């Protein structure tokens, strides 16, 4: 059904439908009224049928669940805003548009296949249930979510529908879809939900899964009605994973997939077991999804492209056998769909009993699978293939209805969009990023494609008709068209983002994200011209059209830069070193945002319009009311809001697209903040600025309606440029009609828009028009490709006579051309890199060539010098040593040679190492292999064989099996904790020592300072010694008592011997449960770990090897014995043969055959070779090659071995012959003699003597022969006996080793179990160690905090004690019956708000300056330092001493109050810190408690793991070989066939247990007797304790009675003994004497100082008197001179004298008035100071002298002796004029100068400096006055 677009006269039918929850069967929805409409600008002349959907070429394969089956031949899937119904057989498509226009979220099909559901996206989207096959809406479900639906599903019978929304609400809803009724709804979770489904076995259960979760739901009945209750699945120890798919089993369990490929079996809401393959392999590689349960097998799909079937019974009954909850099993069926396949969803065929499934491939395909898993099962069939992922490039042919696309799925596809089919696909090693169709100027046939890839490679692809090539060559065609690689080159090192041909087709430009643009000449072969750098990654390239006078390239960068470069000259000579074109003219533009300014101007205009409107309304109202109250109304106007600020985005907005308008001008579309406008820009004249620092603004703009958040991503024009097609960010397409020649886009107002691609992620990146403007093609990031026709289908078919596009014919000779070499390596060098490397290599070669030529020339010169030197006479000829210029040259050459030799060795080191390793491997294989080392010793008389054990070469056990024993964490933590405690305790001890020293030292040092008389010193010393002895005695007694009490056992204390006995009993006797018992708990020291099991296994292997090695040694010794025996037998046989030759023939006996050593007895000789053997092997191999016989290496080796054996035989014969030759000469002579005698016998008879000698010789020879034969027989028998004995021993050892092998097998199985659980055990142990370590740390911190808290409490107690002592001192100072006691107590107790010290220091300068300027304010500020909160004269309460009260007492009270306040502040600080420490201790205590519980839980988990491990080990089968006599499990006198209930026990252990029973009976009787004795002893001890208590009471009464008689009360005798008599009184007396002596000495010193000062005063007075007399005399003389002078000047004009005198008198009068005024001010100031000082207890200072210029110097007074009392330091004195130099300061008795206590006439130096600095002209004025 083709899409029908109706007029937008009305809104969607949703607004016209009723909101009732009941669905009326008679009411039907109409699709034509519901589906989303196109939008057209009102009052425009744009036709509604401007574009018609023609076909969809894409498939959103990466959308979840995007494949459903409506019937056996119709598939349905989502494509942007469309629902595509695809016919499998005919491949025809039908479309349904979304009703919301915001896209489609999810789809599903009813179980009956009569309905299907479309869950949409948008604002408050709906769920629409369609009927099938009518495709009419049946019901609409509203209000289920806010933005989009992510999954929908029907229940088993199709009566209910479940849906789940996406962000932000994630609402799970259950619908009665037939009645359009919402039944249940709740929030699923706050994460993305991938899928929701009903249980196929229980209608009340649902399951949902998604990002990192799975949730189980139940529709439960509550007192308020039906509710949805969810239970979140807990992953436990399994890592959390995203769950794409799951399947519910009939018993309620759920099997889900995981991200790593294993299956998870959920029981309840917890993972029961994780299912994997054998040896821990994953079920699938990557994401796995179970999808059905059929024929007893559970089917799964995975992202690895494999379908596997698993046994359902095994999964349903699966239980973990290891510590990691893993269950291993293998699939029973498997189907590999493909290697580049990623299966994400499957749907089953609707045919009954069909095993056909349709699978969605995330890599862009739809597959048909037959899952019958029989021998006749067909292979998987790929029904449809599409692009996967966002479309990266799209372009159309300029001559035919062909379209080329490319994506990152590494494919390039060509479509015939007229015939609506795919023509061909080519695959490459890297993903495609750009594609462009060459214009007809470049390729007349229109079959050339330029494609860019993500590795920077550009490929030229030729498209041709393969059918026509078949006609020419006769080859069978494989498709309608083919793409052939014509050329490949790599201009960039980053993805190619744009390619563009120059308007004349002479140059190709390529742009990349590496910020470069490369130029190539166009021809049969594309050659590089050069490249330019641009400021940012290239977004697009556009050449100037033919209407422009100059040929230029516009480069658009993603960073907002636009660069225009001139077309390079292909004929120009290019530089040889690099391809860069630095001299290519260019212009740059960097976009600066003006959107905020536009918005601001719009806001200003809007406000002006509103003002004008309001003004007009106000004028109308005024005219109507005829009142002049305009001013009042203007006052009532509200203030205007602030204008929007000017905003420049940082970072800048991205540039999406652009195009030329006029030469030097262009339009840009920006994203992000600057979207919503098209900006008209031009290049500025100033191009000397850095491109990164440029700020260029557009000179014009065009508003894009409703595009603030929907920028234009791509644009294209029709061929006549009267239609502008825009691809929007939201996936919609817009068409703007334009006027001809409208370069400024003034007519871009009305538009036609339609939502096509997905509104969320289907950004429309590419839009193109066909060559005839009949089609528009779009491609988006959602992977969809749509074609639209600009004409209705009927008109299109009439206008186009043909029904398919024309594919170019192949070039002539194409079939004979060889394949072009492609660039397959992604790391291949780019063109520029190759150029630079070639240049570097060329420079290197030139340099080497120059060096070689120089060396050759120098060599010739040197040879000529040598020749000339040889031609010279010998006496003038230079020696060779003299020809050497400097030995350093030869040394340097030697060093260089050695260095080069080392380099060569380093270069050949790898080859040398490889050869050595190969040789060692061959030697190990042929020499050290166990089979080669086996030695077989064969008996001589029998065929019994005895072979050694094959011992493989041992690897390093320490590196393979043994692990270093791990240090116990508890010990380490304990040691660390003890060190921390010790380190913390040491400072505490040091501080305590310091405190003790502070306390003790004064007490010890006082007597030394007092210096009493000898008698008193002796008395005090004796008293101190006595007290010290008593103190030591008491301390010793306390220690004894403490030790005694420490040894006293607790009431609940147990005897350590009993505890030890109980522990041993528990370990050895207590729990005799079998290890197979469920409640058996293995003791801690017997817990088996992988390390212990490895050690046990290694020990067993070492024992086995030791026994085998020992047996091998014995067998080898037997072999060596046989070798010696064979040699001996051979010699004896030869000797017997020689003896028998001397005997008569009738006396001969058969000599036994001498055994030979077999090859298996000496295998080491097999690999012994010599150079001759190697040479012979070479000769044989050359002969084989020359004869061309195809013999293997084995035959050649066999031939060589046969020759070697023959050679060995010859060597043995030669050795025997040499042995015969080495026989003694006696035997040879005897043989000769025998021959002579035989000859004599033949010739004559023998005499009797000769006969007798002959018989004697014969007897001797017979005896010798028999002895030799007997020796041989005995030796052979002895050897065979020893061989037989060793054989029996080896058989016994074999029996033992077989048992050990069985034991080893059991140990290996146990080790495997332990290794499986080792990781979990290590993690638990590490977790436990962490808890223990953290607990120890927290405990240490808690102890430290407690210690600090105790110290703080001690300090607080000390401060409280000082406070009490201060109060007592105050009470003591008051005395008894003081009438001012209440007042002084109030002063003392008053709470003062005090200023902090820092603030006082910080404001000290300000207070001083304030005191100088305003003394009255200074008084108030001084009062505020002590009390800032007094009321109603309260300020004078603590500053004014009441009449009658002693000033000293009042001052003392103030001082005590100050000390009290200091103590209270210090005490408050201490309490605050103590409270903080208390809180910290509480925190640590809580943390310690929590850690203890965590540690206990970890210990329990570890114990549970050990128990599970032991149970698994108990389940292992252990083979125990038994004799029948050992089987005592007899039933009715016979051994039963089933021995499973029997128990295998070691006989020794059984005997031990039986003996232990008897021992326990004896011990039991002994313990009864011991218990009886203990009861009696306990009763006796209780009676003795009562007697001792009564005795202690009597003794205490006897001790207390004399104490009361003597002292009148009970006293502490220990303290009394430690006191010395009158110690304190003596000490105070001596102190008083010392102070009196010091005072006398000081008074004497002061008297001397006073006398000295009086003498000085007299001298100064005398000097002053003389000066006054001199001054008087000089004054008289001056007067006399003035009188004489006046007499002489009487004749002068009187007026002049009168004026001068008058002026002088006026100055004097004015000066005197100022001086009087200043003195009155000083008097007032002095009065205030006196009042102030009298209140504060200070002393009166001398009056302040004003800085007045006076012609007469004031009288100089002598200095006054400073007072004894110290004045207040804080008082700031007013400035006074400096007096005469003061007297030298008096020295104190200690020799220090007393500068702090100066008299009233002496000011501090600081005040003098301030005074002099404040009056810079004072000294000059005073000097003028003196003159």
What does this structure look like?
This protein starts with 30 loop residues before the first helix and ends with a helix. The N terminus and C terminus are likely disordered. The longest helix has 127 residues, at 1248-1374. It is extended and about 200 Å long. By secondary structure, it is α+β, with helices and mostly antiparallel strands.
What share of residues is helical?
Answer: 40-55%
Physical arrangement of strands within the biggest beta sheet = 1-55-54-53-52
Q: What percent strand?
A: 15-25%
Number of helices: 30
Alpha carbon gyration radius? 59 Å
Uncertain spans: 1-22, 472-476, 630-638, 956-1013, 1188-1194, 1219-1233, 1239-1243, 1397-1436, 1736-1827
Distance between the termini: 126 Å
Q: Based on helices, strands and strand pairing, what is the structural class? A: alpha+beta
Let me know the largest β-sheet. Answer: 5 strands, antiparallel
Write down the overall mean pLDDT: 80
Query: Strand tally, please?
Result: 60
Overall 3D form: extended
Entry summary:
This protein has 1827 residues and is an alpha+beta fold.
List keywords for this structure.
1827 residues; alpha+beta; five-stranded antiparallel β-sheet; five-stranded mixed β-sheet; 60 strands; 43% helix; extended; disordered N terminus
Fold topology:
Elements: H1 31-34, E1 39-40, E2 52-56, E3 68-71, E4 74-79, E5 82-87, E6 93-97, E7 104-109, E8 115-120, E9 127-131, E10 137-141, E11 149-154, E12 161-165, E13 171-176, E14 181-187, E15 193-198, E16 205-210, E17 213-222, E18 225-232, E19 246-248, E20 254-256, E21 263-267, E22 270-276, E23 288-294, E24 297-302, E25 306-311, H2 312-316, E26 326-328, E27 333-336, E28 343-348, E29 356-361, E30 365-370, E31 381-385, E32 391-396, E33 402-407, E34 411-416, E35 421-427, E36 432-437, E37 448-453, E38 458-465, H3 466-473, E39 481-489, E40 496-501, E41 507-512, E42 516-521, E43 527-533, E44 538-543, E45 552-557, E46 561-566, E47 586-590, H4 595-625, H5 630-636, E48 655-662, E49 665-670, E50 677-682, E51 700-703, E52 712-717, E53 723-728, E54 732-737, E55 752-755, E56 764-769, E57 775-780, E58 785-789, H6 793-799, H7 831-871, H8 880-883, H9 887-926, H10 930-933, E59 936-938, E60 945-947, H11 957-960, H12 969-1010, H13 1014-1047, H14 1056-1070, H15 1090-1141, H16 1171-1187, H17 1193-1221, H18 1225-1243, H19 1248-1374, H20 1381-1389, ...
